[in-house]
Each structure stands twice: as C-alpha cells, then as structure tokens.
Amino acid sequence: MNKTLIFVLSLFLSLMSCKDEKKALKVTQQKTPKNILFIAVDDLRPELNFYGANHIKSPNLDKLASEGLVFERAYCNVPVCGASRASLLTGMRPTRHRFINYKTRADIDVPDAISLPNLLKQNGYTTISNGKIYHNNEDDGLAWSSRWFPEGNIRDYQIEKNVKDNAGSGQAQGGAISHEMAQVHDTAYFDGKIAQKGIADLRALKNKKEPFFLALGFMKPHLPFNAPKKYWDLYDRNNIELPESYVQPKSTPRKAFHNFGELRQYNNIPKKGDLPEDLAKELIHGYYACVSYIDAQIGLVLGELKRLELEDDTIVILWGDHGWNLGDHKLWCKHVTFETALRTPLIIKVPGKTKGEKTDAITEYIDIYPTLTELVGIKAPKTIEGTSFVPILNGKTPEKNWAVSKFKDAVTLIKGDLFYTEWTSDDGVAYARMLFDHKTDPLELDNLAEKPEYQDTVEALAKELRAKWGKDFLN
Predict the structure, then answer these.
(1) Which of 18, 76, 81, 329 is catalytic?
(2) How far apart, in whole angstroms, are the C-alpha atoms of residue 413 and residue 462?
(3) What is the domain partition of the chain in residue ranges?
(4) At 58, which helix (H) or strand (E)?
(5) 135 labelled catalytic
(6) Contact present, 430 and 449 (Cβ < 8 Å)
(7) Contact 131/150 with Cβ under 8 angstroms?
(8) How many other C-beta atoms can be found within 10 angstroms of the C-beta atom of residue 216?
(9) pLDDT over threshold 70, residue 168
(10) Whole-prediction pTM value?
(11) How far apart are CA 80 and CA 58, in angstroms?
C-alpha cells in the first residue's frame, strides 16, 4: 500500500474517532447536566392540574410537569417562608430554636453551614439570586455571584389609589388591601420584572464556560393577590366554591387553628371571625389569578431556556416554599401543620432522565440539596440532613418513607397515610396531639389521637417521631 493511501486512511480513521469522541461527550453531558435553573414560588399550593385539580389555568407548569418528575407527596419542613427557605438551602432540619419564623436568616441560625449556592459557587458555578430566594435578600451574601431584587414597595400595588394609600407603609401598617385587579402589562409587577431579569441572565450565561445556578424567586401568589386583569378574567367567580373542609371539628385541638393574622393586617379584611362568603370567594379568585400570572412568567423563562438551546444541559427544579390554606379548616395562609400547609408542589426536570413521570414517594425539602449536588457530581457537606432522591429518578424505590415538619411547638411525622402531630414543650413532652389517617380521612376532619383504639398507634408514632426529628431538635 503506498504512503499516500496510508496517510489518507489514517486521517479518515482519526476524524471518525474524533467524531465518535465528540458524540460520546455530548451523550455524557446530556446524562449529567451541569446548569441548574432553580425556581421558587411563594405560597404556591399543589392545587394544579397535574395534581388532579382542573380549574387553575397553568399551561406552562403543566408542560414542565409533562417533561419532569412530579412529586405527589413533597413536604416542606416548616410552613413559613423564611424558615422554610433557610432549611431547604442549607439542607438542615428546623429545631425548637432554629429556623423559626419568616424573619429567619440562615447565616445567623447556622453561620457555619455551607449552603447549596455557596457550595456550588465554591465549585466554579456562577450563582445568581433574582427575586425572593431567601426571605432576607442580604442573607448568605457570600453564596452569590450577584443578587437582584426589584425596586419598590414590597406590596407592589399598581392602581394609583392603592399606591397612594400604601405609600411608605410597613409590613402591617398603612392602607393596604388584600388584592387588586389592574389593567397593566405583566412587567408592571415585580414578577414580570423577575422573569425578564432571568431571561437576560440566561442570554448572558449562554456563552460562559462556567456552569450556572440561576435562582428565580417569584413573589406571587403571596398576599396581596395583585395580578393584571387578564388573569382575573380567566375565571368566573360564580364557579368558585369554598373548600369541602370549611369546618373546624371539635375533636381537633384548638392549638391547631389560628386567627390568620397575615391576612387580617389588610384593611379590607375583618379583624376577627369567619370571612364573609363573598369575600372568601373573591380571595380564592385572586389566588387563582396570581397562579396563572406566575405560570405565564415561568413559561417565558422556560421558553428562553429552550430557544437558547440550554435545555439539554440544564436541570430545572420548581418548588413552592410551603402550602397555603384557602379556607381549608376555615383557615387562610400557612403557619399550621395540616397537610394543606405542609404539602407542596415539587417538579424536577433532568435531561435524559425525566419524561413526565409521577412519584408518590414521601419527600422532604431538605432532600433537595443532596439531590442536586449528586446530579452535578459535587459531594455534599456532612451537615446535610436530607436524603438524595436520585434513586427515585433512576426508577428505584427509596428506603426512606417518612418526613418530619414543624411549626413552633407542633411537630408532625408523616408516614404512609398517617399524619401524627404533637405539641411539645421545651423538654420534648407532648401536651396535645392529633392523628389523621388519609386513607379514610384525606381532609383531616377526624382526629384519632385521643380515641382508645388508637393509643398503641399513637405510642409507636410518638417514639418514631422522636427518633426522626433530628439529633439537635431539643438543643
């Protein structure tokens, strides 16, 4: 064989080998995406089409669910925004004295913890916080390459009278009302601006060598229920009904209920007693409108991710920081340990792994941190108390089948169909209990904890709760 032919053949084989290597590399990258789009939605309850509801219009969330893995039984570890976010982002459980309320700061409660964004930043990620990720935008400052929050009054009214009446008001002062319907463009409100900032960031990140952790924290459907009129127009209030569980059974401890002070601070809400039915339905209408508004903003961001051809290299995870009561148990807002406040929407889309599945595996929010680090090949710190749910993504049955949530003195063990709650003193002694069996009582209207025939079950659950609420719980 002459030298020319040998050279040509060698060159051809070399090019084919190089092509095969690039193809193999592309497949590998699809299996282990490096970027993370981290979407938080404030006060979003799992009242969505892919959870069995059919009355809220959220086509973009439906599409994400059809491409991801939907968790049917995801639970926050504490049903209040600041504490829930600090717990999730550090992967650490709340205790009696840690992660307590909306004012919680991770960098104060656990100053030595390495948060998820901080760990990623230490491993070469560009980390960006837009909108509400931590409750306090200054929290965990070293974790972020950049932080951004829209300017303006936090209630973000757009109707002139509401802006004027609420000018300069604090969290619980001024002429604030619980909702408004404004004839404005989507970008008039904070969440429209947050979506546009996220889109701009994606464009800037497109050609960077470093992987990114882009966190977008949307504000609605948090109170006040402000949304452009076109989203209110999607719903007919005549078709809105109060929940079936609009009752407070005598068998349930009074400690389980509250006066929903978060809602009462608004001037158009009575200071005590049940809400008038018309007002209750108006609020539900406003909540639905806000969910549809947020859905549209998330759709714009996901559309840009696709247009920029970043989809195949980006994990998308969407979560609500806790549930929310829309009249359930005659309650509004969160701050309780009923399932309506603890159960949350959670979707993860992993290129090459997910394609519209659902799982009923019980998952806690502290499980998100170790899952994401495992997916991108970074070792999680020893402070992490959650368990990665990557096995679920791989089609395996998880060993862990329980979750623990708490709010103030109330601590709840979720195991199988049972929801067991104790109100405990500082020394861990219970002073009130409730037990619901979701197999027979999904609305949590029949407290079994004091019934004689359930005492053995209560005793067993009490022991298990203490074994699983965390080694530092009483400290």
Answers:
(1) 81
(2) 9
(3) 32-401
(4) none
(5) yes
(6) no
(7) yes
(8) 26
(9) no
(10) 0.91
(11) 24
Residue with tokens 């546009």: 196
H helix intervals, 206-276: 229-232, 261-264
- Considering 76, 135, 333, 335, which one is annotated as catalytic? 135
Return d(Cα 177, Cα 224) in angstroms, integer: 7
Tokens 């309780």 found at = 336
Q: Which of 295, 257, 341 is nearest to 75 (CA)?
A: 341
Check whether 24 has a pLDDT greater than 80. no
Nearest one of 435, 356, 315, 376 to 122, comparing CA atoms:
376
Only one residue has tokens 């002070």, namely: 261
How would you classify the pairing of strands 225-228 and 212-218? unpaired
Residue pLDDT, tens place only, 177-208: 999 999 999 999 999 999 999 999 999 999 99
CA 375 vs. chain centroid, Å, equals 19
Share of the chain above pLDDT 90, in %: 88
Confidence at residue 384, expressed as pLDDT on a 0 to 100 scale: 97
Read off the DSSP letter of residue 368. H
Of all residues in the chain, what percent are helix, strand and coil, respectively (each to 5)?
A: 35, 20, 45
At residue 388's C-alpha, the angle toward residues 382 and 392, to 5°, is 165
- Reported CATH class of domain 32-401: alpha beta
Give the pair of three-digit tokens for residue 436. Answer: 């619901």
Is pLDDT of 75 > 90?
yes
Residue 10, amino acid: S
Strands 74-75 and 343-344: antiparallel
pLDDT surpasses 90 at 8: no
- The question of whether 329 is a catalytic residue gets the answer no
CA distance 401 to 384: 18
- Token pair, residue 137, equals 């935008």
The Cα 394–Cα 409 span in angstroms is 37
Query: Nearest CA to 362 among 29, 103, 62, 76?
Result: 76
| Cα radius of gyration (the chain) | 24
Q: Are strands 179-182 and 225-228 parallel, antiparallel or unpaired?
A: parallel
Q: Single out the residue of 239, 243, 437 nearest to residue 329, CA to CA.
A: 243
